[in-house]
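Input structure tokens:
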């Protein structure tokens, strides 16, 4: 992993039982945003119950709805941020090395080491059918109640969940090399992303943005699009639109004031941009929260 990446160390109560569960975790509009995307060595399972989150996995961005399940692969740069509503979700961290030392070499070599060594990756947004949700629900219950031999039960449920992932959610294209390439490219643009999120409410000069990464403008624009799938201008506008939507849903500020807070000096132009992005005007979105 590139040394410039932001590593997140995951604490475990018991190093011999490297599983961490956070049940009914809540994020609010006041929750501080991370300064940068992070990565860790564990696989992370997110199960959303209410509200909406903005989930970033590498270059992929998702907006969640209740009932959805997401997978963060080991070493994958990611972020989970508040997006709207009353955001409540469960978070499970499991280290693939939990099965080290087991006598079952088939599980260890054929499956678990494949996850640990990033030889396979799972889809980030997985099926929300009954089976994975039921496994997660039972796993959380066992971990919370901690009845005798709960560790055996929890480990078996996680193994069951991994088996379901191997059968249904292996991403053939999302390989180790892709993760490494994406991370390396992202690190080269880290200063630009930080600048955008710090100054989205101001006029942003692309040449200065490129200079913050020590690139000329043309190389910066090519690299930026290869990482995000968007031009820098499109990305900046998307950040502004998402920030505007959040203010619409969580404050009583007027549309003109919101426009100014996200970098638009002309409210009429802001309205046109907003409608083009969301297919609804700001007032329509505010009056219909389900949009």
């Amino acid at each position: 992993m590139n040394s410039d990446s932001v590593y997140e160390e995951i604490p475990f109560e018991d190093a011999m039982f490297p599983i961490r569960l956070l049940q009914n975790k809540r994020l609010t509009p006041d929750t501080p945003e991370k300064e940068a995307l992070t990565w860790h060595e564990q696989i992370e399972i997110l199960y959303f119950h209410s509200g909406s989150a903005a989930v970033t996995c590498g270059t992929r961005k998702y907006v969640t709805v209740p009932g959805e399940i997401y997978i963060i692969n080991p070493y994958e740069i990611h972020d989970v941020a508040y997006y709207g509503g009353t955001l409540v979700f469960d978070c499970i961290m499991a280290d693939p090395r939990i099965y080290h030392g087991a006598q079952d070499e088939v599980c260890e070599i054929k499956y678990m080491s494949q996850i640990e060594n990033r030889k396979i990756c799972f889809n980030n947004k997985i099926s929300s059918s009954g089976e994975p949700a039921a496994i997660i629900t039972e796993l959380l219950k066992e971990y919370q109640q901690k009845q005798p031999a709960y560790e055996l039960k929890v480990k078996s449920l996680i193994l069951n969940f991994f088996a379901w992932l191997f059968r249904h959610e292996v991403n053939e294209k999302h390989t180790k090399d892709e993760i490494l390439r994406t991370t390396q490219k992202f690190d080269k643009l880290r200063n630009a992303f930080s600048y955008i999120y710090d100054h989205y409410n101001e006029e942003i000069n692309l040449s200065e943005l490129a200079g913050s990464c020590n690139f000329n403008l043309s190389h910066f624009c090519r690299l930026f699009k290869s990482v995000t799938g968007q031009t820098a201008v499109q990305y900046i506008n998307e950040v502004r639109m998402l920030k505007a939507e959040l203010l619409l849903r969580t404050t009583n500020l007027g549309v003109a004031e919101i426009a100014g807070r996200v970098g638009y000096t002309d409210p009429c132009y802001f309205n046109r941009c907003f409608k083009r992005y969301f297919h609804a005007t700001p007032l329509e979105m505010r009056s219909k929260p389900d949009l």
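DSSP finds eleven helices and six strands in the chain. The radius of gyration is 21 Å.
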